[in-house]
Design goal:
Largest sheet: 6 strands, mixed
Strand content: 5-15%
Radius of gyration: 19 Å
Number of domains: 2
Length: 294
């Protein structure tokens, strides 16, 4: 039986609300190393009660699971790992605590400034039961990573490229020589459906369904993909409807009433996916005001 290891990044939405001390926003001020030391202590002493595959929620995570199911239904032995800003690289069968941490800038639970996220990722490798891309390099490896998570993992991705092998990166933030890449393409969203957050996972599912051989990437498949993409690509327009501060605050209150674990980033995405407009800085200030008074 063929083997395939899939690496995806985590999602903000969780099935269990994290405790206050397992939200990055609760960490004391300080440099990356000292903040991580506090975070590590909290994670290691937390109750590990949920399997990671059951912890993450939302459309993107559903697509991640379907990506694995697609491969399994084709007779492939699949292992899936999740790249987490709070836990490192973990097998989705592991038990873990719920938490809120992200590499996405602008979130209340962003682990650190974007210039330091690679240091935070390196520290995460010190946690017990974490894996690494170097340990997986001998296996067929499909990586489906957002821009911010690929930035954090850039050193590991570059090392993976140097080692070579049957690997493919879908999404990411830059092309690395030696690591085939299928960049995110928002103009394919109409053809593939779903939200923007699930686009690269839907691209990965489509790519895997049209592969011609055992290799995850070959030039013939790339040409076939390019031909298909040209035929279906439609530029997205962003004619969103403006809202007043009161309307946005009401929207935020309704979201937090439904799910108190919403972050500002996730809430803004929900608002924009609904066809409404709001600048990120303005939305963040409104979100913090509503959350503080809740």
């Amino acid at each position: 039986m063929q083997k395939l290891t899939i690496v995806v990044n985590c999602t903000g939405r969780k099935s269990v609300a994290p405790s206050p001390d397992l939200r990055i926003r609760s960490l004391p001020a300080g440099d990356t190393a000292s903040r991580f030391t506090t975070w590590r202590r909290r994670v290691e002493h937390a109750d590990k009660s949920v399997r990671l595959i059951d912890l993450y929620q939302g459309e993107a995570w559903q697509q991640a699971k379907l990506l694995a199911e697609d491969a399994h239904s084709n007779g492939v032995r699949v292992r899936m790992l999740v790249a987490s800003a709070g836990l490192g690289l973990r097998d989705v069968t592991q038990l873990a605590p719920s938490y809120s941490a992200t590499f996405t800038s602008g979130s209340d639970d962003a682990v650190c400034d974007i210039s330091n996220i690679h240091d935070w990722w390196r520290h995460l490798g010190e946690l017990p039961r974490t894996s690494s891309l170097s340990r997986l390099s001998a296996e067929p490896l499909l990586l489906v990573l957002s821009e911010s998570y690929a930035r954090a993992m850039d050193t590991d991705l570059a090392e993976l490229a140097r080692r070579g092998g049957n690997h493919l990166l879908v999404g990411g933030w830059r092309t690395i020589e030696g690591l085939p890449r299928l960049p995110a393409d928002r103009d394919l969203r109409r053809a593939l459906g779903g939200t923007a957050s699930s686009l690269i996972l839907r691209m990965a599912r489509r790519w895997m369904s049209q592969r011609s051989g055992a290799d995850l990437f070959c030039e013939a498949d790339q040409r076939r993909w390019a031909t298909w993409a040209r035929s279906v690509r439609r530029p997205e327009s962003y004619d969103r409807i403006p809202m007043s501060d009161a309307e946005i605050a009401g929207f935020i209150r309704n979201l937090l009433r439904e799910d108190p674990s919403y972050s500002a980033t996730r809430a803004l995405r929900a608002l924009r996916d609904g066809g409404y407009a709001c600048e990120q800085k303005r939305f963040g200030a409104l979100f913090r005001g509503v959350a503080k008074s809740a």
